[in-house]
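User: Could you walk me through two proteins back to back? I'd like the raw sequence and the structure tokens for each, with a short line separating them so I can tell where one ends and the next begins.

Assistant: Of course. Protein one, sequence then structure:
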Amino acid sequence: MKIRVAAVGVTGYSGLELMKVILRHPAMECAAVMASETTGERPLGEIHPQLRGLSNLVCTPQDPARLASLDVDTAFLCTPNEVSYELAPKLLAHGIRVVDFSGSFRLRDAISYPSWYGFKHDEPDLLRQAVYGLAEWNGKAIAGARLVANPGCYPTSVLLPLLPLVKADLVAPGSDIICDSKSGVTGAGRGARLDVLFAEVSENFRPYNPVAHRHAPEICQELEWDLSNFTFVPHLLPVNRGILSTMYLAFQRAVSSQELQGEYERRYRSRPFVRVLGATRLPELRAVKDSNFCDIAWRLTHNGTRAVIFSAIDNLVKGAAGQAVQNFNLMHGLDESVALLEGEPVAIHG
């Protein structure tokens, strides 16, 4: 018997990527797709022309009670922070498991939300229940979770390469970590905004929200690193999708490339979506486009006492929908790679 799922907030780019995976997932049955009241009732193929002929589903206004009546087991929330904050408790109260794409349950400290996310968080119990959905590191906890906080796209690109080095106590305590990340325009969402118009982005390249981006505390929380010793600067690339992150750090002692290779292989040898390129190759966006892979490489400097670490992911897949399905697979005792190594969707739902 297939697991009944729902996608809420399906009108955005991440929602489209999620539906592509749901439609080809052998263990999922999509019971409903929903969006805000302003979307009304519209065929999914009208919202996303790429899905014409692949689904007969009709998108309806988001309604937790209706999802409960449809016997939905798991709901994916591709919704803004404040919307997820309102919807998740209602869905959980109906016994529906939640994988949330927003930042509403990523930070463990409720006090952090007004300054970083702009709203007051009055659900400290849910923050304690929420499991941070970085599958390569939190798989056991994700398997038993009712609420999974899907990591941000930038944090995914930073945490996967840095965690092995920090956990191995290779990075000098109290030292500065500098992270320079570049993202495609889909990371800004599908809403109409002047700064992401084609004429503004094409043949252009710029930083935004430097040193004050809301993903910085999320990264430091998972690294257990002092925010005052972490500098994060995101940039907007004139491409549709992908994130390339470059990180600069200092080690406690001189290390060799072979030592780094061994540490990464130890941590990720059994993980299907992390590809360790090592010290001879470099990540690039086209190599991870439309995939759930994270490619990691490095270059040592200063006689092995410092390093530049590189990573690349697709912000809509490993940075959003693919990672969410990877978490779903773990939550339901499936191989984490199910439906994430195949091609285009082939199923008809609805």
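----
Protein two, same layout:
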Amino acid sequence: MFSLLQSRAAREAVPADQVEAAYYRLRLRALFGIFIGYAAYYIVRSNFTLSTPYLMKAMALTKTDIGILSSCMLITYGLSKGLMSLLADKCNPKYYMICGLLLSCLVNFFLGFSSEFWMFVVLIIANGLFQGMGVGPSFITIASWFPRLQRGRTGAIWNISHNLGGGIVAPISVGAFALFGAEHWQAASYWAPAALAAVIAVVFMWVGVGTTYNAGLPPVEKILPDVAKNDLIRDNSDHAPDNLSAFQIFRRYVLPNKNVWFVSLADACVYLVRFGVISWLPIYLLQVKGFSKGQMGVAFAIFEWAAIPATLFAGVITDKYLRGRRMPLAMFCVTVIFGALFVYHESSSLLVVTAAAGVIGAFIYVPQFLLSVSTMEIVPKFAVGSAVGLRGFMSYIVGATIGTALIGKLVDLYGWDAGFYTLLTGAMLCFVFCHLTHRSTLNLENARQAAPQLANNAA
């Protein structure tokens, strides 16, 4: 299958006098394609959560059974995000992403026919596997079409696709239940989202674009040399060397790269705090703070939706005013989160705790987003998928697991204070790794600036 998705040059190169016009036209299509494509991935992932009440009733499942199914998705997705992003480096990101989306649609189609618990386990694992084919191609596309000083804003726009895709699942479900009726909950929960995602895949196929190499254009460094001179890695090709496999790219450019490890460890700490708050927020607010379900729902919604303006703001600030340096703002946000965690834990005021949850939600997604952008900037463009894969693996398998399973165990054994101290530790470690990432960025900048001078001295 991967040979069919392999990255190939366009049949005809764009004439030199048309390169700039074609670039500005096609890069908007490239961004639009991955935006709607990744939103569609969320449509056929988040729909399972909304189906669980009907699934429990129809199959007499327990909460433990539902927890097992959810864990299967989370763990498989974390593993797949690593492996599938690695393989994406050798593929056309447009076709690769569409392939994964259509396979997820197919899984959802079969979920509508499933009637046994083991069938759901198999299909949920399969969906987690195919879901991992979405994020790597998205970052590969952004890295190919946009230079460093434009990736913050571009990445922020793409990042909203998470919220869009997750946010429209509920309206889709409501509309589908109104159309099919509760007795056909499988069609409403699985088939309707899959049908919409498949339509989006067709639009993506028609509108979307792969890399500049796939479109018959030179690398962005040659199209926008004045802007691209600020890139940390000098890279005049979007295409992976033919003599290197995806795993060889990973071993040579990612695995020994300390900068990728700094970013990955920082992101794992971000996911620890993010999942440690959002996973336990409903229970914590209801059982400890005495919130009603309605009040808890408001706090939950604020946590999620506060991320959109914060992410957009972060992209603009780091591009325009911090010259592409992402970590100073990330460290500031982590510091704010550290303080907000204290307020969230200690206060008994409904208004103050809700505000603290909103602050944590607004600021936790900023370092997560900035670290994802940094991942594109510390490796050659043909190794972006592998770097994203390592970061995604660490984020889900290490960070999310600690934030969910380990914190739950600690709370059972030692109370909520133990979970609180775990979150604070995660925030402190995140600050440390963000600082190390910032120092590495400055070193790469100095090395890039020194390269022309060394070449002149040698001449």
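DSSP finds 19 helices and no strands in the chain.

Let me know if you want the two compared in more detail.
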